[in-house]
Write a structure and sequence with these properties.
This protein has 271 residues and is mainly β. It has one domain: Beta Barrel (Porin). It is 10% helix and 59% strand. It has two helices and 15 strands. It has a 15-stranded antiparallel β-sheet that branches. Strand 8 and strand 9 form a beta hairpin.
Length: 271
């Protein structure tokens, strides 16, 4: 029952985020929107659907996994000086043979919810930053899709935009504090350095390494990815499409190995 309630709460939150989305008129160029999307804490509502394909998963490297992360980003104005940026990640997963005899599983993974408090104006030196809490919600619909642990910790992001370049990093750490006593405790650090180059017409290229360090196993997972992106319109909806390969520089015995692939569709709702 607890897991079903968690799934309902997480799904409800994602839907609530979507209700805040409005098709407000705007006159921003595609290049300006691409530059905003390179900033994880830009004051713009967006709803990314990030689709990741990973192969050679597991101790005998015989499994595969598809993960679609639904990631609504909702900025909320607190006053004239501060925003809080709500970033939700709700994973929808299908995986097969991640270890011998595992079979296939489909469903929802564990949800993360970040709240980043960010000044509306950059610093005098041009840095944009935000910091706040991150929460782990045990919304996994299957024992092999979630950790059945509640978690929390700090998260922060810092970046600089100079001309057509954006560079910076996002990091968080999550400790588990409650959950199924039979399941493994969580102590995990996520580090995401990124750099993006934008061009007129809404084109951009992003390089990133969405790296995780598992303190329980003393193991890094480091996928290096390079993605091409384009902001355009489909009907009346402003959209960014992106795709590109990922290569795992390091991964534990239970994780993916070698090459993967990512495709992203981002619905944009600029003011």
């Amino acid at each position: 029952m607890r897991r079903k309630n968690s799934i309902a709460a997480s799904t409800g939150f994602a839907c609530l985020c979507l209700l805040f989305v409005t098709r407000a008129g705007h006159c921003q160029s595609a290049e300006e929107l691409a530059k905003k999307l390179a900033n994880p804490i830009a004051a713009m509502i967006s709803v990314p659907f990030q689709m990741n394909w990973d192969d050679n998963v597991g101790p005998v490297e015989d499994g595969n996994r598809f993960t679609m992360n639904v990631q609504p980003v909702v900025p909320i104005s607190l006053n004239d000086d501060w925003n809080v940026i709500s970033r939700t990640i709700l994973p929808v997963i299908h995986q097969s043979d991640i270890f011998p005899g595992a079979g296939s599983q489909s469903g929802i993974g564990d949800t993360t919810q970040s709240l980043l408090f960010s000044p509306k104006a950059p610093t005098a030196s041009g840095w944009i930053w935000g910091a706040g809490p991150i929460f782990l919600l045990p919304t996994g619909s299957n024992d092999l899709l979630g950790g059945e642990q509640w978690g929390a910790g700090p998260t922060a992001v810092a970046l600089k935009q100079h001309g057509s370049w954006t560079y910076g990093g996002l990091a968080n750490h999550v400790w588990s504090f409650a959950g199924d006593e039979k399941r493994r405790d969580i102590s995990s650090t996520f580090v995401q350095p990124f750099v993006t180059r934008t061009w007129p017409g809404g084109w951009s290229i992003t390089a990133t390494a969405d790296s995780t360090y598992d303190w329980k196993d003393d193991q890094w997972t480091i996928p290096l990815g390079v993605f091409g992106n384009k902001v355009t319109k489909v009907g009346g909806q402003t959209v960014q499409f992106g795709l590109g390969p990922r290569y795992y520089l390091d991964s534990g015995s239970g994780g993916p190995h070698d090459w993967g692939f990512r495709a992203v569709v981002v619905l944009l709702f600029p003011k």
